[in-house]
Design a protein that fits this description.
By secondary structure, this protein is an alpha+beta fold. The chain has two domains: 4-177, Thermophilic metalloprotease-like (3-Layer(aba) Sandwich), CATH 3.40.1830; 180-397, no CATH class. The chain is 33% helix and 24% strand. It is built from 13 helices and 18 strands. It has helices spanning 4-22, 41-54, 66-75, 78-81, 88-92, 115-124, 126-137, 151-156, 161-171, 179-199, 284-290, 320-323, 354-360; strands at residues 31-36, 57-62, 97-102, 142-147, 202-208, 213-216, 236-239, 247-252, 256-258, 261-263, 266-271, 274-279, 300-306, 332-338, 368-373, 378-383, 388-393, 396-397. Strand 1 (31-36), helix 2 and strand 2 (57-62) form a beta-alpha-beta unit. Helix 1 crosses helix 2 (41-54).
């Protein structure tokens, strides 16, 4: 497991990341919510102490254990399923930051639960997500999250726990004497890439690999985002495209765990912006039910690319936070089905009303599911002036 020194460094990186995401440092009396799984208790204690030293007001909430979560979905009646505890909305309307420490003790305990039932609970809680999204658009709130090693994660990733732990240490630069310095360097390099991508007058992007042929339309008033502090680790750059312009075939060759279900080799065909055909070698029925969660679940919410020069992640980790930042030999791209990110709007996020989101093709959904492709690939930008520009080739940005 992570050493005390590694946990101290992790806490340093997470607080740096949260301040990055907020665009300004936490100030005295800011309320910061720490949500954590039980195996993350020690890191929670360290963060709690750090926040108190900073003059902030930490609020800690332990997540339901996997047994509690299973009991909930097995036993909850319709009213219990959609119940939101008194005080949740008030808390979410007042927090300035949120740190989530993910350390799952089971990835498959919900396998026997109807995905539609899980989806109903997620949709009911979207009101809380909307509160936080709106506060973030007003720059009153932001968040970050990280992963801690557990035996379950190591088992599902098919590696010893010690090796899994070393992947987290390496991936987050916790083996560095000064990990924050490493992250500042990555942030500087990626910022240059984001600026170049955002400056291009792109009509659409064309993704090509052995199993993919997909066109993605960025849409109007977009900018590329990434390495913003929201995730630790994070090497990706991404945009929330105009979902209406998505055409072609996407393939996720990395497996994925979601709501207790394992899915593999997901192939999605898009037409006029919507997923019209879904295939998978494992978990196909589950994928189809997820994409039927609400009207936006079958549409594109994000398109992302990772440059392998920055990411040290080179193994399947059975956790999207790491898998969507896979570096390896060929880098990765991923798409997210469902909700979009307002921080890829090129204007003032506070002015991004629901009506303007709809007009610009920003997708809205209770779902946000990242599906990762690590094949050798090219991404070509087809510009509005008729020229084509290769922007990404075999894991490296070409601009």
């Amino acid at each position: 497991m992570l050493s005390e020194r590694n946990l101290e460094k992790y806490a340093d990186v997470l607080l740096w990341a949260l301040n990055m995401a907020k665009k300004k440092p936490l100030k005295k009396n800011d309320i910061v919510l720490i949500q954590y799984d039980l195996p993350a208790l020690r890191l929670t204690e360290i963060l709690h102490a750090r926040l108190l030293d900073m003059g902030a007001r930490p609020v800690q909430r332990i997540a339901a254990t996997y047994r509690m979560e299973l009991n909930f979905y097995q036993k909850a009646n319709p009213r219990q399923l959609t119940f939101i505890a008194p005080g949740d909305e008030e808390l979410y309307k007042n927090i300035s930051g949120r740190i989530y420490l993910h350390a799952p003790e089971s990835l498959t305990h919900l396998k026997g639960i109807d995905p539609m039932k899980i989806g109903k609970a997620i949709v009911a809680r979207k009101v809380l997500k909307d509160i936080l999204d709106h506060r973030e658009e007003q720059r009153k709130y932001s968040w970050t999250l990280c992963l801690l090693p557990t035996r379950e994660l190591a088992c599902q990733a098919k590696m010893p726990l010690a090796q899994y732990t070393s992947q987290i240490v390496k991936g987050c630069y916790l083996d560095s004497d000064d990990p924050i310095s490493e992250w500042r360097h990555i942030h500087k390099e990626v910022t240059g890439i984001k600026k170049k991508l955002s400056s291009l007058p792109v009509k659409y992007y064309h993704l090509e690999s052995a199993h993919m042929d997909l066109r993605i339309t960025p849409g109007e008033r977009r900018k590329w985002a990434g390495v913003s502090g929201h995730n630790v680790p994070s090497f990706e750059v991404f945009v929330s495209p105009d979902w209406r312009g998505t055409e072609g075939v996407y393939f996720a060759n990395l497996p994925s765990f979601r709501s207790g279900n394992y899915v593999k080799d997901v192939r999605i065909t898009f037409a006029k912006g919507k997923a019209v055909k879904v295939e998978a070698s494992e978990g196909e029925a589950f994928v189809k039910k997820q994409l039927a969660m609400d009207a936006g679940a079958c549409r594109l919410g994000e398109f992302s690319l990772t440059d392998k020069r920055f990411s040290r992640i080179d193994r399947f980790m059975a956790e999207t936070l790491f898998d969507e930042n896979f570096g390896g030999k060929e880098g990765n791209c991923h798409i997210a089905l469902g909700s979009s990110y307002s921080d890829t709007f090129s204007g003032d996020p506070a002015q991004l009303t629901q009506a303007l989101k709809k007009k610009l093709g920003f997708n809205d959904s209770a779902l946000h599911w990242d599906l990762v492709n690590t094949e050798p690939k090219t991404v070509t930008a087809h510009l509005t002036n008729g020229k084509n520009l290769l922007i990404y080739d075999r894991g490296i940005f070409q601009i």
